[in-house]
Specification:
three-stranded antiparallel β-sheet; mainly beta; 68 residues; 3 strands
Amino acid sequence: MSMAEHYHFHKDCKYFPECTEELVRNQGHEVIKFTCPAGGVGHYYKGDLHTIKWDCAAFEPYQEELKL
């Protein structure tokens, strides 16, 4: 499997509309608690959540054209 097949933007996932975001404090830092019904919970810095690419075993593209 190529490196590109491991990365995606989470906004490209069909589960994204059901996900929730909550601002929380974690070890003295304000972070976003991102909860996905398919992928569980992750904590991200505010500037990272919608900009970084990340790997998720539950990722399914919301449309056919996004499949790698």
